[in-house]
Amino acid sequence: MLRRMLKSKIHRATVTRIDLDYEGSITVDVALMEAAGLLPYEAVWVWNIHNGERFETYVLVGDRGEICLNGAAARKALPGDLVIIAAFGWMEEQSARQYSPCVVMVDAQNRPISQAA
User: Fold this and answer.
1) Beta carbons of 19 and 69 less than 8 angstroms apart
2) Quick one: which H or E segment has residue 30?
């Protein structure tokens, strides 16, 4: 049996801007993407801590400190909102029982402050 498990997450990132006129997605600081093991165009869930919005989109590479919601996703948050960005993956049950996800905690400027795997 395959189980869908949390692969990685960026915890409490601050939305730095929104762009309604973009095609859609979330732009994430490249260093945070690397720390969380996220690839460009990978599907992610975004959970807004401030208003409870939850949605799925895909990741684009951003500049240092950047967390930008694009297109329709821009309606789900405001600059300054805190979000959790999470990616999931499928694995065999035996592997899932021994697996630990990568969790990247960030500060108010979206710099990694700790990472657990």
Assistant:
1) yes
2) helix 30-36
52-95: pLDDT as tens digits:
999 999 999 999 999 999 999 999 999 999 999 999 999 999 99
- Token representation of residue 61: 């590479």
* Among 88, 86, 87, 68, CA closest to 78: 68
CB-CB neighbours of 56 under 10 Å: 11
Say what the pTM is: 0.94
Catalogue the active-site residues: 25, 58
Q: Tokens in use for 115? A: 């990472």
98 burial type by CB count under 10 A (0-12 exposed, 13-18 middle, 19+ buried): exposed
